[in-house]
Amino acid sequence: MSSRRSRSRQSGNSRITDDQINDLVSKLQQLLPEIRDRRSDKVSASMVLQETCNYIRSLHREVDDLSERLSELLATTDASSAQAAIIRSLLM
Amino acid sequence: MVVCLSIYPKKSLQLYLASMNSKSLSSNPCRKTSFTRRFLRALAEIRREEPNSSSHVDISRRCQRIKVAAYASMASAVGSKRAWSRAMICKVRNRAICRASMRQKIKISKWKKAVANKHRRDVNQEDELRRLVPGGKSMDFCKLLEETAHYIKSLTTQVQVMRSIADYYST
């Protein structure tokens, strides 16, 4: 209970309620593959923030790797007629 | 349901795709399709404009262009209703306009800032998150959390589509 009070002091804005922040933090937790299955009372807000930063960084790295892969593949492909086929395969 | 997509004119294709249900729980099918279409168009343009060589310099320049195209396509697909996508679109536009000398100056000032921050212990998680999410520096904490959630969902869609395209071209 005391951690809630200190968290609102840290956020510095009395109009944002603790419940709002808790709600947003738990929504974020659901998106993180590492900790989404853990119970929300066992996961602190700072852990969620930490995991969020790590996850975003790993997604950025994946985009970098995929860009590199695509740049090597791009030279060797015939892209013109493939658009509908790609979209179809992506959405099915 | 088997439909021959190639006989449909482009507009019907769009309507057909928009009406399909997405199997994925968290991604918006329209945003995914919009991103895919924009990104594929950008890839085709890059392929036309860049030399077809496998030299290291050319590959890395293509790679950079592809990366920027991916982020720009996703930001455009999301549109202006999100602060992070607006910030991303501005960044890409400024990057295009920005001259090389200006870019060098910005690079140097960022490097100086990084050196100054290197000795600061206990990096604040909130600051770190603000750095990672486009436009994060000027949001209040609640907005930052909301935008982060949406940004993560869009990034996962982007990665998913890029991976599918790369797999498709690998076969």
TrEMBL record, chain A:
Top-level taxon: Eukaryota
Keywords: Growth regulation, Transcription, Transcription regulation
Record InterPro entries: bHLH_dom, HLH_DNA-bd_sf, PRE
Domain BHLH: from-to ranges: 5-59
Record bears the keyword Transcription: yes
GO biological process, one term: regulation of growth
PROSITE patterns noted in UniProt: BHLH
Keyword flag Nucleotide-binding: no
An example Gene Ontology molecular-function term: protein dimerization activity
Annotated protein name in UniProt: BHLH domain-containing protein
Organism of provenance: Nelumbo nucifera (Sacred lotus)
UniProtKB/TrEMBL annotation, chain B:
Entries under Pfam families matching the protein: IBH1_N
Keyword Magnesium included in the entry's annotation: no
Keywords carried by this UniProt record: Nucleus, Transcription, Transcription regulation
Keyword rRNA processing set for record: no
GO biological process: regulation of DNA-templated transcription
Domain IBH1-like N-terminal: 32-95
GO MF entries: protein dimerization activity; transcription cis-regulatory region binding
GO CC field: nucleus
Subcellular location: Nucleus
InterPro entries, per database record: bHLH_AtIBH1-like, HLH_DNA-bd_sf, IBH1-like, IBH1_N
Name this protein carries in UniProt: IBH1-like N-terminal domain-containing protein
Record organism: Nelumbo nucifera (Sacred lotus)
